[in-house]
Design goal:
The structure is a homodimer of 382-residue chains. By secondary structure, chain A is an alpha/beta fold. The first copy, chain A, has 2 domains: 148 residues, Aspartate Aminotransferase, domain 1 (Alpha-Beta Complex), CATH 3.90.1150.10; 221 residues, Aspartate Aminotransferase, domain 2 (3-Layer(aba) Sandwich), CATH 3.40.640.10. The first copy, chain A, has 14 helices and 12 strands. In chain A, helix 3 runs antiparallel to helix 10. Chains A and B meet through helix 2, helix 3, helix 5, helix 6 and helix 9 of A and helix 2, helix 3, helix 5, helix 6 and helix 9 of B.
Chain lengths: 382, 382
């Protein structure tokens, strides 16, 4: 039979899905979720001003968005005190990560990340034929020293670091990030994924410095800004590097609604502060729920909390004596999902001893509290 | 100075922009346009039901869209009488073209298209390191026989054909497309870009046949459906080929508003028929305006009309005697733009003897008529 050609890199790739969405889980279960606390969205929503702008934008859906993202990039640049030539907007950080790999990595070249860090980054490296080199987390944080050492020893093209970190919620003081940057060898690009910067302590985040061409900072409107469905992320860095994106990006990839919504959301910093305060309260509430159930919440600088389920072993008694921490956490996850509350968990040991719960309003966290209690009760009595 | 790495392909690429948007032109001119007739958008807009759904979706912007596009792909599949496994949705046809090149083309391999056909396809081929081989148009149509011969002789991985064609508005009877498909050699993928299928004569479009793994059909909600700003396109074809997109696409690339808007637009075929009737009327009106001004409209199966300006030479008198047809068309284009009506023109000879005007309501076409008359008057008196 006559066939079509498939490039070597794509042919050899497995079909993999970075994150199965709650909609797909609902379809598998044949039942929808009552609370959606697994995708680190902001259930508190975006600024009402952004919502109003996006409503009105529906009437203009016949028009392509400005392919230069001019107004949005100009506003972002002003917000960070850099030039518009230092900013590139894209279809979420995800889309920009794919383009960055395409720009900086030759097929076969090494790319260093943490084992258990953002799977979508790994997905893009694989899709481009890069060679992933993974460094274990250390004490639930990305191990900056080991990452840098490994990047040097394998002569990596790109080093991926997230601060704060997903899936653990951990973070580094900005002085540690500064030390990492000071130690970068030549010809290495640092991807600093700061999707959760808006919910982090102020001293975790370095001021943006576009004079260092080796550091590209990634931000998003999907987390604290509450616009995950609008798909707007951006990268900030050296103008010549940012210019490279023009060679490879989908110039007409941005939706008009998202462009306008992000612009309005950025302008409403007062609302962002309110949302971050709500996220902070929800973090404390999730931590309290975990402790009430004999589990250990990890400190978080993000809009979610990782909950260590390893300590559930004692509470659960003999049934769990032979199970790994990961298996116990998986059993708890399944029990919570079965009660129609969508949460997720890390997949790589030792992070996989945790479940991960996104911040949300009290009504949603009440549902989580009930589901968690029920899941643990089931495990005790099984 | 320490530098970042840049892949060879990207380093050697020029910075190029497939299409400068009307917003960028407005910024250059320091003045906005009164009519927007250059981007082949549908000024008649989308179905009111789609607008209503997108308005409501603003409240849910905090949620990621379903990364599997399940409901939309299922609806598209039902519409075409194929399986959901034969459909992949993406950020416009543009985004899907980039992914198709990534899937099918090794860097250095030949890709055949028509000289003057869709520049964004060429952009993606360049960005992937493919080798573009261009075949001239013949009588203002893509030269199917010559394209096939060239694809065979250079052992191309991919052949790009659009039917109907942008920028000329021309089309082939479906029997000619069937003949092309029957002649495809092994290991060649045909990209059949049917962005304008909804405005084409019925006998221009072959029924979709997913049993042929060498043909991938591309459709969009950006044209007759009136949802350019929502960024929703799709490809239909062999299930195994469609599955390849899962390996390389940005799984969370689709906006929630666009997903829902496209679903509602697809369900409202009655509105689509109304919009197509409006587009047909506007095509006739544009043709009449061209003839009234001594210019020659080309037949069109799309939502725009290419107007041959070569025949303006006689009318314009001695000033134009030494100018090329392309230069005359450019002078007319500039005159229309200067009167605040946004239109475009093809860039490659001999297509460049035309200006290209998108369909729109009478008020917009009145503005175009006035601007064209003024532009021609200026040229006569210059």
């Amino acid at each position: 039979m006559s066939r079509y050609p498939v490039s070597r890199i794509v042919r050899d790739l497995p079909v993999s899905v970075p994150f199965v969405g709650p909609e797909a889980l609902s379809r598998q279960r044949g039942r929808s979720f009552k609370a959606r606390l697994g995708a680190n969205e902001s259930i508190f929503g975006p600024s009402p001003r952004a919502v109003a702008v996006m409503r009105d934008a529906a009437d203009e859906a016949w028009m392509y968005a400005d392919p230069e993202n001019f107004e949005l990039e100009t506003a972002i640049a002003a917000f960070h005190g850099v030039g518009a030539e230092n900013v590139v907007v894209g279809e979420g950080i995800d889309g920009l990560l794919g383009l960055t790999v395409k720009i900086a990595v030759e097929p076969g070249q090494a790319v260093v990340t943490s084992d258990g860090a953002y799977p979508t980054f790994n997905f893009h490296v694989d899709a481009h034929g890069g060679r992933l080199v993974k460094v274990p987390f250390r004490d639930d944080r990305e191990d900056l020293g080991a990452l840098l050492d490994r990047a040097k020893s394998v002569r990596a093209a790109v080093l991926y670091v997230s601060n704060p970190n997903n899936p653990m919620g951990s973070w580094w003081h900005r002085d540690e990030i500064a030390r990492l940057i000071a130690g970068l060898p030549g010809n290495l690009l640092l991807i600093l994924d700061e999707a959760y910067s808006d919910t982090a302590p102020a001293d975790a985040i370095l001021p943006i410095d576009v004079s260092n061409p080796q550091v590209l900072r990634f931000r998003t409107f999907s987390k604290a800004y509450g616009l995950a469905g609008a798909r707007v992320g951006y990268a900030v860095g050296d103008a010549a590097l940012v210019q490279m994106f023009e060679k490879v990006r989908n110039h007409y990839g941005m939706g008009r609604t998202g462009q306008l919504g992000a612009l309005a959301a950025l302008a409403d910093q007062e609302y962002l502060r309110t949302a971050v305060a709500q996220i902070n309260r929800a973090r404390e509430r999730i931590a309290a729920i975990a402790r009430d159930n004999g589990l250990m919440p990890l400190p978080s600088a993000t809009n979610f909390v990782a909950i260590d389920c390893g300590c559930a072993r004692l509470a659960l008694g003999k049934q769990s004596a032979t199970q790994s921490d990961g298996a116990i956490a998986k059993a708890i996850l399944d029990g919570v999902l079965a009660r129609d509350v969508f949460i997720r968990k890390p997949g790589v040991a030792p992070l996989d001893r945790c479940i991960r719960v996104s911040c949300g309003p009290d009504a949603d966290l009440d549902l989580f509290a009930g589901a968690l209690r029920g899941a643990l009760d089931d495990l005790r009595s099984s």
